[in-house]
């Protein structure tokens, strides 16, 4: 964890923060940068890992930066970004998913715009094992439905935005007799897999894009009160002062934009193989997009 500093070590102790050093030595940094070292934060979600590794690879290979990937929970990464311990965070869910985290840091972070749109938070059910009568969150109030679900909504990490919204949803819909069982991204996927294996219904917190939607037939429960938020956009955040310290990297990150299908593609290949290989494949297949991110020059249309 060298390079994080004393304050960063305190954050690491609280968050279980993990630093992954990039492979190989980086070439010299751009002349106008304050240094050639950057820290990119990512949460333990497949989509967050996919985009963080993609940005890190471009910044290493095209701009010559030495990049550390810092994994932690979203609340800790927002704090680390505000305190300058992390430089970049590419997984800010807006306007609902990370609202409380953004409110906590205020103007201490800078928004570089949308990375991709069409995202969603909510509760999902496995199509094959969940009766059609369970189509919306209000349907969970039925006593027979509650009994079949053991009064449990399977969740992810307790501090995530979707879990905060889920607690609000329990109250908004008056779902008495239900509990929200925290787990992890992997734990939520396991709950879906077990429900399918056992032929049982299950309600699980989720966000899209996610590799589960490629692997299983899933559907979101309708949320007529929008208690779990409406359509989401995933934004790019940097620490204050980043533009001054890293003007070239700033321009690249500002231009960085992805179709949701590209995020889904990287996740699917990352799960099937490895994320570094998935990222390398995507970069190789999209030279025009990479050229635009790095130089700002628009050329022939690249793969969506």
Brief account:
Helices cover 42% and strands 21% of the residues. The chain contains 13 helices and 10 strands. The protein has helices at 5-15, 46-63, 74-82, 99-105, 143-148, 161-172, 185-198, 212-215, 242-245, 247-255, 260-272, 275-285, 287-295; strands at 18-21, 37-42, 66-71, 88-94, 109-126, 152-154, 179-181, 204-208, 218-220, 232-239.
Describe the protein's architecture and organization.
It comes from Limimonas halophila. The protein is of the alpha/beta class and 304 residues long. It folds into 2 domains: 5-118 and 233-295, Periplasmic binding protein-like II (D-Maltodextrin-Binding Protein, domain 2, 3-Layer(aba) Sandwich), CATH 3.40.190; 120-220, D-Maltodextrin-Binding Protein, domain 2 (3-Layer(aba) Sandwich). It has helices spanning 5-15, 46-63, 74-82, 99-105, 143-148, 161-172, 185-198, 212-215, 242-245, 247-255, 260-272, 275-285, 287-295, and strands at 18-21, 37-42, 66-71, 88-94, 109-126, 152-154, 179-181, 204-208, 218-220, 232-239. Helix 2 crosses helix 11, helix 2 packs across helix 12 (275-285) and helix 3 (74-82) runs parallel beside helix 4. It is globular and about 65 Å long.
